[in-house]
Amino acid sequence: MPTALTQRWTVTHATPLGDVRTSWELAPEGLHLRSDAPTGADAQPLRWDAIAEAATAVVDLPAHKGGPDMVSWIPGRMEWLLVSRSDGGRSFMHALPASDVRDAIVAGMRERLGSRWVGEQLPLQSAQKRFRISTRGDGLKVAAIIGSALLLLVLLLMTIIIVGSVLYLPALFALGAWLFRKGLVGLRDALQAAGTPTARVSSAPMGLVELEGRALTEQPLPAGVSGCPSVWWDVGVDAWYSKGRGKGGHWRQVMARHGGNGALILEDATGRVPVWLGDADLLLKVHTWESGNDPLPARGHTLLDGTAFAWHGSSRLRVRERRMEAGGPIYVLGTLDEARHLPAAGEERGLARLMRALRTGEWRMVVTRATPEPLRPPVIVLIGYLGLLAGVGHGGARTQRLEDTPPPALAPDAVVVWKGRAGRAFIVSDQRETAALGDLRKRSLWLVGGGVALLCYGLYEVIQLFSDGGAS
Asked: What is the structure's pLDDT at 21?
């Protein structure tokens, strides 16, 4: 690559605040770094003739060794670019992306700097000393940030306790009503599906439609455990945690993996139609293997290699896999519509937008940007700590849920099956209609029962509250 040409890469990496985009530009005049992180301004352009030395340094992190999956923003290894300056400016270090882009950036830097490029993957501490990157005072800064984060955590817990004591009963009734309604909607959808005739792709009417056929995709992926070519798959690994001799125990998820995308092609004997899975109610068979009872496929052993959970080890394990097999049966009840009516990214408003922000983690960046700059470091630490607690065992889980996947790129007049805008049912299953609707009814009845139980318990608490008040 001639040094007179500009090389530019934009990478996205996971952080406690969500995905952050960083742009690396190796221009003829110098190095440019830009980032949309809320914790600092873009780095100033650095001229090549102002660089005294440059190298990369690494440190291995123990986060992924010997325990459950950690959150995705905690890597097993970190690598930084370190640069010292000959113009009197401060030396600096910046994290390198953990991808193929890293090799391209390092190659470009090495070519432009020649003998001033002094090495790769040096030990971090020795590299910091060589490049005179001072760590003096870092301990106090870290202690101050952690102390501030702990204070914010205490204040948050106190707020939750105070607000929770006031809103406990309303929240209980709200949750019970939500479960009850969701169960009724499921029963309604099952009834609606049972009364909808199965159509052919070539003659399916616009609007609510029921289709059966085969699930296809341009690039099938092998499922994480079974290895079956799939449109979409999801794997969870559970470990059994015993409460003590004779006291039973429970399963706890310690690992999660996924693959695939949010769109597929449904094919029957008369034609094909794309299906966008955004916000679909997936009713997929769960394939389960339990250590001591079932042989685990080879890909399952590969999945567990390098973790603390060996299939034939001392821990009792259970592996669950859901998959939508490429070429396998598919049942869809949804809305057949023109692609021009598909929603654009970020089109949601009001409550829908809020729910999307909560699902995707976008709220973290919003809260951080709204926080005064001096308070941002402890707020980031607090958000990261809470995310770490919530993410243990789900580190490899889907960062983008199916309801948040963007719609497929189609011509405006092309037809597609999706959720629609009329609030109709959208069911996708790898089983035939009878089995799929049977699962939907069973799940809906459980939701109705759980909602009724919570509502009854809330009513009991209200009666107890008034009876205690009357007795006093």
From this structure: 87
